[in-house]
Amino acid sequence: MDKPTCFLIDDDEDDREIFALALENVNDTYNLVTAKNGPEAISILTNDALLIPDYIFIDLNMPFMSGSDCLKKIKEVPRFASTPVIMYTTSSYSKDAEQTKQLGATHFLVKPPGISILTGVLKRIINKEELPYYLDEAAY
Amino acid sequence: MPQYYNTIMENKIAGTEYIEDPQPGFSTTGTALEMLPTAAYTCTANGQITFYNSEAAQLWGCNPIIGEAIWCGFPKVYNHDGNALLQDKHPVFLALKSGQAVKGTELLIEQNDGSMQTVLFYVKPVYDATGITGVTVVMIDGIPTHKDKASVQANHLGLDSLSDLLEAKVEERTFTLKKSEERYHKMIEEVKDYAIVLLDVDGFIQNWNQGAEKIKGYTEEEILGRNFRIFYLDHDRKNMLPERLIQQALDTGRAMHEGWRLRKDGTRFWGSIVITALHDNENNIIGFSKVTRDLTERKLADDRMANYAQDIEFRNKQLEEYAYIASHDLQEPLRKIQVFSEMLENNLNDPAAAKRSLDKINTSARRMSNLIKDVLKYSQLSRTDELFTEANLNTVLETVMEDFDLLCEEKNIVVKRADLPAIKGIPIQLHQLFSNLLSNAIKFCREDNALIEIDAKPLTEIDPDNYPGLYSDREYTKITFKDNGAGFDPQYGEQIFKMFKRLTDNTGTGIGLALCKKIVENHHGHISVISEEGKGAEFTIILPLEVV
User: Fold this and answer.
1) Would you say B74 and B165 are in contact if contact means Cβ atoms under 8 Å apart?
2) Is B173 exposed, middle or buried (0-12, 13-18, 19+ CB in 10 A)?
3) Range(s) of the domain holding residue B70
4) CATH superfamily of this structure's domain A5-135
5) Which residues of chain A are within 8 Å of residue B504 when distances are taken between CB atoms?
6) Element (H or E) spanning B168, and its range?
7) What is the pLDDT along chain B (548 residues), one digit of tens a residue?
8) Which member of A112, B80, B519, B532 lies 3.0 to 4.6 Å from B433 by CB, making a disulfide possible if both were Cys?
C-alpha cells in the first residue's frame, strides 16, 4: 500500500515549512505534497490521476484564488468528493468558517502559535478523533 | 384666415374650455331682418333658405318652405337688358361661390301676375371657422325703371342699419374672445415659480413668462425666436438631448426630464421639465408647451443625503476592513513570532538553526510594524476641503523620483516622463499616490531594458457610464504609469485595489494600491489598470483640474 498523503495549499513559505515539521512529528511516513496557490493546486490535482490525498489542507487567504474558491473547485472533482478538506488559516473570522462549512470543508483550523500544538491537532485529525468543526485554541 | 380662428386655436392650446365656433346669427339676424321695411332672406352655403321676412314673401308672391326651397324665390329673372338670367350669374349664387359680397345688382323679375319689377340685390356672405356658411340677401323693390333715387337712398339706409347691427355683433364677440385671451395670457405671464414657454414645432421659443425669466435669466425680448437648445449643457446638446425630447413629445404626446440646465449667466440649475405636444383641430402638431421647475435646492439636498449615505457606507466598510486586519493580517506575523520562538527554544544548542529562527522572528516583527504604520496611514487619509491647494504635479513627481533615483540606477530602469499639469489637490496625498505607483512599477520591473513611462493628457469628454462618479462637463487630466514588467492576469484587474489583496509573494503589505485608490477617490477621480501577464501594466489615473 502507498504511503498516506497530505496535500497542503498555502502561499506562505514559512507556514509550509512549519506544517511539514509538524506532520513529520506526527508520522514520518506521511507524504506531503504542497502547492503555492489555488490554480497550481488545481493543476496538480487534476493532472496527476495517481495523486489521491488522504487529507487536503487549504489556506484561506491566498493571492490569485481564495481558499474558498479553491475548496469549491476541488469539491467539483468527483474523486475528491469524499476527501476530508481542512481549511487552515490565520483568520478567525466566523463568516469564513460558516461559508467554508457550507462548501463542504471538514474542519476550520486556525493556525496554532506553535509547532507542538499543531502536531497535537494533526495527530487527532489523522487518528480520526471526534473533533468540532471549528478548531482554535479552545479546541486544540 | 379670419382673425378669430387664431384665438380659438390658442384657447385650445392653453387647454381651457373650447369655445364654440360662432354660428351665423340667424335668429338674431332673423329678428332684425323681420323688422326691415324691405324684402330680406338668409340661406345656407348650399342655398337652402333658412329664413325670409314677410316683405320677401310678398315680393316673391309665395311662401317657400324653410330648409327645402333654394335661394332663388322667383320663377323668372331677367337681366337688365331683358335676357333671361342664367342661374350661375345670379348674385346669390355668385356670392356663395366667391365668398364676396354683392352690392346692388339690378335685376328684372316677373311676378305671378306677369308684371315686371326692378329689384336691387344686396348679398352678404356669413362665415365661421370652416368657411362660408351662408348668405344674407336683401332685395330692394319698387324701383321704377327710371330709378327713383330718393327711394333707393331710403332703402339703402335700411341696409346700412342691418350691416351696422351685424358689425356690432361681430365686434362684441371679438371683444369677449379678446378679453378671455388676455386673461389667459395674464395667468401664464404672471406665474413666477414655473417657466412656461411655448415652442414651435422646431423648438423655437414663441412665448415667455415671468417664471421663465426668473429661472433662466433671459428677458422676453432676448429669447423670443431662439431655440430652446440654448438652455442645455454642451454635452447634452452634443448628445441631441433637446431633439430627443422633442421627438418623444412628437411620438407620445409628452416628454419629461430632469437634469442640469444653463441660465443666461452660465450658472446651472437643476430643471425638471415637461414638454407637451399641442394640436390643432385637425390633430396636427402645431407646437409644444414646455413647463420647467427649478429644483436645484432639492437636488442639492438629495445629493448631500446621497453623499452622507455613501460616507457612512464607506466608514462601515472601513470598520469591517480593520476588523479583518485585526483578525488576520496582524495576527499572522504575531503567530510566526510565537512559532519561531518555540523553534528557537528547541534549537538553543544549534547556533545556525537558532540564528535562522531569530531572523524569522525579526522579519515578522518588522512586517507587523510596517502593517501597523500602513493601516494608520490609510485611516488618516481624509478629504477635507481645507487640504486642497494648488498642486503642481511636475513638482510632486520630481520629489517622488528623487526618492527612487538610486533604486532606478541600481536596477537600470529608464523613467520617461511627460509634462504634468497643475491641479487643485492635496499635495501630500498626491505625493503618496505617485510614490506608490512608481514603487509598484519598480518592484515588478524586468531585469533588462526596464522602462517606466509617465504621461499626461487633458481629458475633456468623459462618458459618465464608463467612469461612475465623474462629471461629463468637468475638465480632467489623464495620467498614465506604464511599465514593461511582470504584469498580471487581467482577471485580477479590480482586486489589486483592495486592501491586503496581494497577487504575488508576501513582500509588501497589500495596502499600497488600496491607498492609491483611496487618494484618487478623495480627489473625486478614477483609477484603473490594464495588464497582461509578462507584458507590463498600465495604471490610469483621472483627476479633476479643479476641486469638485
Assistant:
1) no
2) middle
3) 3-187
4) Response regulator (3.40.50.2300)
5) 63
6) helix B149-190
7) 333 333 333 333 333 333 333 344 344 566 777 777 888 888 888 888 888 888 888 888 888 888 777 776 676 888 877 788 887 888 888 888 888 888 888 888 887 777 788 888 889 888 887 888 888 888 888 765 544 455 555 556 666 677 777 788 888 888 888 888 888 888 888 888 899 999 999 999 999 999 999 999 999 999 999 999 999 998 899 999 999 999 999 999 999 999 999 999 999 999 999 999 999 888 889 999 999 999 999 999 998 898 888 878 877 877 777 777 677 778 889 999 999 999 999 989 999 999 999 999 999 999 888 888 877 777 777 767 778 889 999 999 998 998 888 888 888 999 999 999 999 998 888 998 999 999 889 988 888 889 999 999 998 777 767 777 787 778 899 999 999 988 888 877 777 787 666 655 555 667 788 889 888 988 989 999 998 888 899 999 999 998 87
8) B519
The whole-angstrom distance between residue B223's C-alpha and the CA centroid of its chain comes to 17
Grid coordinates of A77: 472533482
Q: Are residues B183 and B265 in the same domain?
A: no
β pairing state of A55-58 and A5-9: parallel
Task: Based on the fold, state whether residues B8 and B124 are members of the same structural domain.
Answer: yes
Residue of B325, B329, B331, B335 to mutate, testing the A interface (most A Cβ within 10 Å of its Cβ): B335
Residue among B328, B342, B501 minimizing CB distance to A116: B342
Contact B328 A111 (CB under 8 A): no
**Reported ipTM exceeds the 0.95 cut:** no
